[in-house]
Amino acid sequence: MLNKKITGAEIIIEALRNEGVTNVFGYPGGAILPFYDALYKQKNITHILAKHEQAASHAAEGYARSTGKVGVIIVTSGPGATNAITGLTDAFMDSIPVICFSGQVPSPIIGTDGFQEADVTGLTRSCTKYNYLVKNTDDLGHIIHEAFHIATTGRPGPVLIDIPKDIQNNLGIYYGLEKIDRPSYQIPVKSFDKIAEEKISNVINLLKNAKKPIIYFGGGLINSGPKASELLQEFAKLTNFPVTGTLMGLGAFPTDEKNFLGMLGMHGTYEANMAMYDCDVMLNIGARFDDRITGDVKKFSPNSKKIHIDIDDVSINKIIKIDEYIISDAANALEQINQYWKKNNIKSQNLDNWYNQIEEWKKIRSLDYKNNNQIIKPEFALETLDNLTKDREPIITTDVGQHQMWASQYMTFRKPNKWLTSGGLGTMGYGVPAAIGAQIANPDDLVICISGDASFLMNMQELSTIKQYNLPVKIVIINNRYMGMVRQWQELVFENRESESYMGSLPDFIKLGESFGIKSIYCDNPDEIQDKFQEMLNHDGPVLFDCVTEKSENVFPMIPAGSGHNEILLRKDQENYDQKDKNAV
Ligand SMILES: Cc1ncc(C[n+]2csc(CCOP(=O)(O)OP(=O)(O)O)c2C)c(N)n1
Ligand SMILES: [Mg+2]
């Protein structure tokens, strides 16, 4: 414990250091200057200067998602803080632990409409797990450690600490790391406890009698840590059950393992979605029955018994009625289930008929596409990229749109924490800064951002950050000259009226990249794409790759919003499609 008084800004540095933080992502301004001054005087924490606070917040998310550690964001008051709100909301939706320190106008000015004043605790109340306005420098250290506790325990999420300038300048006492015990924050104490044997045996009774079982996992598997993925693979081996996962969960189970049916949901494979529809027992581990997975809840897997394992008790029975549940961290639950299965020498039912049925669905080959030797098909571009990179187990980030779905469909994921995508909020502009955060955290890994022409424009200023820190991030723009996903919905649902979805004035991406001092490669020829991707991969530093593709390709399969899994639309059906529910999202 330090008895001597130090400034609030120094307390922030000390507390971060004690939490093991080595990198923070931020952007300075008046109300956070005392902190930046303390940062200047120390050597333990490296600050990455993003070029927009939204990007700083996504970079912190990328750092967190690729490591499991907390991502730290530093912004100034007013516009600095409001710019970071998109990243906080994104982290909230996808359960990512980040902590945002925002400067605030000095305490006496609060409430006077002071220069760059915004009610940041008010604005972020609904998009953070918790937030604080610090009123006393002596409280600061405790608040920071409590914030780390809240961000990382139970279901992880973002926490914001708003710190008026005078609180940063004033002297106070830092009490050091402490054990947090806050009566009003009851973490799900059960989440790591031994699960009642009766619960486990109920779950296993359902599973062992299943004739058409399916395992459905989500992002909770990733948040639980790499051990959860190993235990899931062990469970799949023990039971020989087929496995599918959500967009958020990709990588928790190797996508090229034989039991894996492909991704689930709106743009998941035919076999995964049909198996979900038709199964008799569903084991959901760490997923939340999001609408992109369930489609119309009334038509969701109508004849199955459903088991839900989740760390967040609020998720149980929230959207889908459950037959059995366990509130637990995923690894903890899987460990106990696997042990019980082995100890009691349990055998699954004969699954031959079920696998025969699945083989029939697979024969539809729902991810097949028609290649073209004149124009690059986006699917072909991503398959080619995957072939060249999968053995290096790259970290893949994406933006939002068709390219994101194609990346999820055509790239191979064998390990957790390698797939960083904005699943819940669907934030265009996420991909490039997330790649920055991931590359900072994993300097020796190959980090590839798969972006879209429209999404890339939303945070393209981050080319400057990539250059400044010479991060060897590879950015591949799937350039279809459209907000492709918007155009796809307009084609299918709005009789092809392309209202404002054409990107009429794109920059010359090659000149743009070069103007930042970044190697830039253009490709519009399918015959050249492999060599040009190889050229990108051979380059030591960052690369911006403009991959000009077919402009009107659609993503299939597609479960139209508001439909059931059995109403899944295949490429061949698109001509005759007519969406009935125009209000479905
Ligand atoms: C910040 C934000 N604004 C709007 C949207 C709605 N939206 C979803 S996908 C999309 C188009 C994305 O276009 P592009 O990045 O070119 O990707 P493509 O679909 O063409 O692959 C839009 C506008 C969004 N997801 N995020
Ligand atoms: Mg596009």
Can you offer a commentary on this structure?
By secondary structure, the chain is an alpha/beta fold. 52% of the residues are buried. It is 37% helix and 15% strand. It is globular, with a radius of gyration of 24 Å. The protein has 3 domains: 6-185, Thiamin diphosphate (ThDP)-binding fold, Pyr/PP domains (Rossmann fold, 3-Layer(aba) Sandwich); 197-362, TPP-binding domain (Rossmann fold), CATH 3.40.50.1220; 378-555, Rossmann fold (3-Layer(aba) Sandwich). The strands form 4 sheets. A 6-stranded parallel sheet has the order 3-2-4-5-7-6, sandwiched between helices. Strands 11-10-9-12-13-14 form a 6-stranded parallel sheet, sandwiched between helices. The chain has a 6-stranded parallel sheet with strand order 16-15-17-18-20-19, with helices on both faces. The model has no long low-confidence stretch (mean pLDDT 96). It contains 22 helices and 20 strands. The structure holds thiamine diphosphate and magnesium ion. The site of magnesium ion has 8 residues, from helix 18.
